[in-house]
Design brief:
By secondary structure, this protein is of the alpha/beta class. It folds into three domains: about 80 residues, DNA polymerase, domain 1, CATH 1.10.150; about 180 residues, 3-Layer(aba) Sandwich (Rossmann fold); about 70 residues, Winged helix-like DNA-binding domain superfamily/Winged helix DNA-binding domain (Arc Repressor Mutant, subunit A). It is built from 17 helices and twelve strands. The strands form two sheets. The protein has a nine-stranded mixed beta sheet with strand order 1-2-6-5-4-3-7-8-9, with helices on both faces. Strands 10-12-11 form a three-stranded antiparallel beta sheet. β5, α9 and β6 form a beta-alpha-beta unit. α1 crosses α6, α10 crosses α11 and α15 crosses α16. About 0% of the residues have low confidence.
């Protein structure tokens, strides 16, 4: 196991190889170790392979040494390395092309819990934001959910602390290595989280919480969640980046509205106004959109199954194929119907509980 782990970590250190190309490379060669066994001539035949990458693979001594040091750190600090091919790796992240090849995890929560909710927002949380966040988390107690956030000041801290108090597993995704907790003021909270949750990062030990790490951290938060909820945010900031990433991953995004004069409600209001997020006021909104409120009864399922479609409705449903979600543009192209006619048909299908409109002009099959 240690032998394999060294090579798995080493793959992430190869210059010129990122998460997307790295996973393709592993698939091409068979496993992580095999990458380092390829002959130079074979590597030179691979389209787009840079000289610096080939040199590193042909002379991997320094890379393997650094990987060995990381394994020592992992074993010493009871950290769980999660290579993307391991079953414990967050399966939702695997749906994202740019998901990390390797994650480092310290904790006990199931990263593949039945429901995963990310809660994000401003570091400058207001009393209104605290109230919204705390109430939401308390209402999630019976939902069998994992709460994910970034352990930053403000909304993140309130989300994690409220989850700990409520007994909900919660994971903080870090933009630094596990040699430290950042911000340091959350060190005690981080320890408490590990009893029924944990800390997760793609950063190797020694990585400092530098500014450039946090946008990458945000893609993990967005990718491993079913829903991303923005509590409060200004018009610019990491929360809106996370929301955009979540939309690109076809995740549901929610935002609490606020007064138009409030600086830290402007970002949420913008997300709602531009159809980038569902408006959320309470847990009922989340349950409804995510279909948590109740399972369909047998009679309801039978009605949906045996619903007879018109020729035009069938053209719409055929556009879904094996996909659960399609964009309005895909439906316009796929059906060839006029936009006004298509909108009318989609509304009827929505009323009948067959499709559901989502932010970003997308439709999901129920």
């Amino acid at each position: 196991m240690t032998h394999q782990l060294i090579y798995q970590i080493a793959v992430t250190l190869i210059p010129g190889i990122g998460d997307i190309s790295g996973k393709r490379f592993v698939t091409y060669c068979g496993d992580a170790e095999a990458i380092f066994k390829e002959h130079r001539k074979s590597l030179e035949k691979i389209n787009g392979m840079r000289e610096v990458t080939i040199d590193a693979l042909c002379h991997p001594k320094d890379i393997l040494k650094r990987a060995e040091q990381e394994v020592e750190f992992i074993e010493k600090n009871n950290i769980k390395p999660l290579f993307y091919q391991k079953p414990e790796y967050p399966r939702r992240l695997l749906q994202c092309d740019d998901s990390p090849m390797m994650l480092y995890y310290k904790g006990n929560a199931n990263l593949n819990e039945q429901r995963v909710v990310a809660i994000v927002g401003t570091r400058n949380i207001t009393d209104y934001g605290k109230e919204c966040c705390t109430q939401l988390v308390n209402d999630l107690v019976d939902e069998q959910v994992l709460v994910v956030s970034g352990l930053a000041y403000g909304v993140d801290t309130v989300a994690h602390r409220s989850s700990v108090k409520a007994g909900i597993p919660t994971v903080g995704v870090l933009g630094n290595g596990l040699q430290q907790v950042y911000p340091a003021a959350n060190k005690k909270l981080a320890v408490e989280m590990q009893a029924n949750g944990g800390l997760l990062t793609e950063c190797m030990s020694g990585t400092q919480p530098d500014r450039e790490n946090f946008p990458r951290r945000n893609r993990i938060i967005a990718g491993m969640a079913d829903a991303v909820i923005v509590i409060e945010s200004a018009l610019k900031g990491g929360s809106l980046i996370t929301a955009d990433l979540a939309n690109s991953y076809s995740r549901d995004v929610f935002a609490f509205p606020g007064r138009v004069q409030d600086l830290y409600s402007q970002g949420c209001n913008y997300l709602i106004r531009t159809n980038r997020a569902h408006l959320i006021e309470n847990i009922a909104n989340l349950r409804y959109i995510m279909r948590w409120e109740r399972e369909k009864t047998r009679e309801e399922r039978q009605t949906t199954i045996f619903r007879e479609f018109s020729k035009e409705e069938k053209r719409i449903m055929d556009c879904f194929g094996d996909k659960s979600m399609v964009s309005l543009d895909d439906l316009i192209i796929g059906t060839g119907l006029p936009t006004t006619k298509l909108a009318s048909l989609l509304l009827n299908l929505e009323f009948d509980g067959i499709v559901m409109a989502l932010p970003g002009k997308r439709y999901q099959r129920c």
